[in-house]
Amino acid sequence: MNNLTDIAYIKSILKRHGFTFSKALGQNFLINPTVCPRMAEYCGASDTCGVIEIGPGAGVLTRELSKTAHKVVAIELDKRLLPVLKETLAECDNVKIINGDALRIDFNKLIEDEFAYGDVVICANLPYYITSPVIMRILEERLPIKSLTVMVQLEAAKRICAEPGTREAGAVSVAVRYYAVPEMLFKVSAGSFVPPPKVDSEVIKLNILNNPAVAPKDEKLFFKIVRSAFAQRRKTLSNSLSSGLSLSKGEVASALEYCGIKLTARAEELSMDEFVMLADFLTD
Known about the structure:
The protein is α/β, with parallel strands linked by helices and about 280 residues long. It has helices at about 5-15, 35-45, 60-65, 80-90, 105-115, 130-140, 155-160, 170-180, 220-230, 235-245, 250-260, 270-284; strands at about 30, 50-55, 70-75, 95-100, 120-125, 145-155, 180-190, 195, 200-210. The protein folds into two domains: about 5-210, Rossmann fold; about 220-284, rRNA adenine dimethylase, C-terminal domain (Helicase, Ruva Protein, domain 3, Orthogonal Bundle), CATH 1.10.8. α2 crosses α3.
């Protein structure tokens, strides 16, 4: 079995298939041999667990996942990589490649069709430009999965895993904590890829909750408040909510006062529970 982290081998097979890297698709292939085994271990792949991979690239993580998972279904957007994957994964009889877009594919149907038993997890090396959209789509659809283990750019990882109420928190931090318990696993240097990106990456894991972490009376309003609060980070929460929710400053001030939140507070200062209190007050 050929070494998919060998730069010379990877370049030769890509050249043979006429493949060139696409900046638009954020294609960077892993060549660090220590990363994929760790990702496969952390994601929980086992003989009773199925794995959905997003963006297999040349198949280095796919092959590692196939060693322990009972089945791997990899979703690849770039048709040019299909013949490459057919060759690199020829010996992996428990792998299925689907040509599709992770932002559009019906994950529920995929899980129903492809995984007859056991748990299902998602594992991926995500391109930066689809990191938040893919993660949020998976979480919001409340798929029957146990966890989501992904490699993302380091700064994105910090935002995704930030605790609400801290300086690095954003709307995505609150949304992720609503659906899951995030953890940062390990750093991956830019030199671990070909071509090397401009920044380092981090592997994170989102452990999916059976029920949301908090229970606002109106979930849609809760998320609307969160989005409005962080839409204009430099403004005070009072101003952001007034413009984002089309409320008078007096109405927002009353809500903040009722919830014990100071008028000069900013979005990153609020905890999950305080966002819920605001949402519930405005719902009532």
